[in-house]
Amino acid sequence: MPTSPLRYAYYPGCVAQGACRELHQSTQVLSQALGIELIELKKASCCGSGTFKEDSQLLEDTVNARNIALAEHLNLPLLTHCSTCQGVIGHVDERLKEAQAHNPQYLEQVNGLLCKEGCSPYKGTTEVKHLLWALVGDYGLDALAAKVTRPLQGLKCAAFYGCYLLRGQKQIPYDDPFNPQSLERVFAAVGATAIEYPGRTQCCGWPLSSYATDQAFQMAGKHLTAAIEAGSDCLVTPCPLCHLNLDSRQPEVEAAIGRKLGLPVLHLPQLVALALGIEPEALGLSHHIVSLEPVLRKLNSPITA
User: Fold this and answer.
1) What domains are there in the chain, each with its CATH number?
2) pTM for this model (two decimals)
3) Residue 305: its pLDDT value, please?
């Protein structure tokens, strides 16, 4: 166990409060089970999902400097559970810390805009951390394994990291952006078996979906097919946008590639919480498009509500 209780300024992001509310729900449930305190940043805004910078880098930096400053005001790390939010806000944090050292005029410009809106300035005194890094680096996998009451023995899990988690920042903690192992290490800690397959570090296709829908579905179908052919029981992702393309749109993906798939897709906190003995209905598993029943049958934990 950590030597002192873990506390984070919790940035839920847009998708987990809308299309993937089960992610918000399962993150809260998991945190309570692990004794992690989350202080939700209710005044935070959308990170922009990488689109703000297409119009203005200053816009992206100012919006997310404000998000980071909200966590700094609490003297806490900013915790994300979305690969895209992590990549965008984490990279802004990197860029502004570089500006502190090498381009203070730019940081003054950003903080001047925040000041005009009555917001706290960005100070560069905290860090932006995804839930995955918090589990691996702060809580610790040995401590996590000690909390497991329902080992996921026999469950074959394929990781799907998402682009932004691995390549959105110049540096990522605890892992290699080209050959990551953090999710696989979490799988081992909760008793599941990691499945290797092509595509686990590639794009799910979501960024293309608004203007090249068929290509987006083809990309998703390629990854889902590879995971199935490698013997996976489910896909596990730390990104709700990946979840939308791989789970919510899986029927459309099937139509695009002309093949039935039916591969369940879990959010990271859902998988870990199941191993901690938390019941499926508390994790929003019934909200998924692809049924989780095959996974839960393996764990003798059917959805009852």
Assistant:
1) 7-130 (1.20.1050.140), 140-300 (3.40.50.11810)
2) 0.95
3) 41
